[in-house]
Amino acid sequence: MGGRTTRQRMAVLRILAGCQDFVSAQELHALLVAGTHTIGLTTVYRALRELEASGGADVVRDDGGERLYRQRPADGHRHYLICRCCGRSRPVDSEVVEQWAGRVASDTGFASVEHTVELSGICADCQPATHEGAPQPCPWEPVRPDSRNQARDWAS
After folding, report:
1. CA-CA distance, 120 to 84, in Å (whole number)?
2. Rg of the chain over all Cα atoms, to the nearest angstrom
3. CA 129 to CA 10: how far, in whole Å?
4. Lower CB density within 10 Å: C or N end of the chain?
């Protein structure tokens, strides 16, 4: 993360690292405050922007356009499939996308090409049973700072 390493920025990093799925700046701020950290929302936004710029966070947008953050794994940039109902995320194999972006950069002479690929759907747990006629409401509670980050089991 660029800039000074402060107690608040380190707290943002620690809490973000503990999040299982993508989290908004507001949700991250709520988690920090609930954990007795004294930090302003502006500081959280600034730390997340710096973390994104330095390659330390993956970012997606939700249906409303809000930016959601997740700590980037040590092995680099990833793409995710995100459930539109419960917010769970799952990394997906995206080598073909990375190769395509590299070819586009090479063919056009552009450098430092960045790309965004967003995949969303309804996970198996949120899908209504096919034998039932009417769609069922999402079985998961709405995503909140305290529920989004619980450990989630993705059965393959």
Report:
1. 6
2. 18
3. 44
4. C
pLDDT of residue 33: 92
- Beta-carbon contacts of 1 under 8 Å, excluding residues fewer than 6 positions away, are 9, 13, 47, 50, 51, 54, 56
DSSP state letter for 128? P
pLDDT tens digits for 10-33?
A: 889 999 999 988 899 999 999 999
pLDDT band at 4 (very low <50, low <70, confident <90, very high): low
- Rounded to the nearest angstrom, the gap between the alpha carbon of residue 62 and the centroid of all alpha carbons in its chain is 9
Q: Which of 50, 17, 18, 15 is nearest to 29 (CA)?
A: 15
Query: Number of helices and strands (H, E) in the chain?
Result: 5, 6
